[in-house]
Amino acid sequence: MTDLIPLHAILGTVLSGLREHLDEQGLNGADISMDNPSISLVASYVTSDKPFILGVRGHAELGDHYVTGYGYESAGGSNYAIVNDGHGESGVRINMNSSGMQQMIG
Question: Computed over its alpha carbons, how large is the radius of gyration of the chain?
Answer without folding.
Answer: 14
